[in-house]
Amino acid sequence: MITAWFAGIVLTLVFALFAPEILDKAILRFTKHKAGLEPFRIWWQARKGYVKRAIKIIAIVLIFGQTVGFQLFIFEEALQTTMFATWQAPAGGDRAALAATYRTILDQSWRFLYAVGWTNPLAFAPFKAYFESAEQWYINAYRSVP
Fold first, then answer.
1. 3-state secondary structure (DSSP) of residue 19
2. Minimal CA–CA distance to 119: which of 65, 60, 62?
3. What's the rounded Cα separation, in Å, for the pair 88 and 5?
4. How big is the CA angle at 67 (ends 65 and 69), to the nearest 5 degrees?
5. Residue 32 three-state SS
6. Predicted pLDDT at 91
7. CA angle at residue 81 from 80 to 83, to 5 degrees?
8. Is the pTM of this model over 0.90?
């Protein structure tokens, strides 16, 4: 997962650095000898700085969203690890401590999801569903074991 996250960040940075120049060259080359496209060429020359800045802003938003998605993944892994530990708790472990740890991680996950998770809409819904099911599992598991 770390490799995929890092690759996504690198590709986004490459896009932000090179896409504006490639777009500029392509538009200028395409409109070079076409008289009907001269107004577009003039419009592009006047506004290409805005387009370049917009592409960079979009890249920053995408990188932030990828970072948020990765942090949500880490919360999910922390919940799963704690969940695996709770399976052994009734056999002699400290069940109350594990339950408190699970509840703490779950609460932090919810806070993070609603604070910044919305910046990555592709990750928001799946992680919201996971945290809901994890919370339901926590409540049912805690009630079922004496």
1. helix
2. 65
3. 32
4. 70
5. coil
6. 62
7. 60
8. no
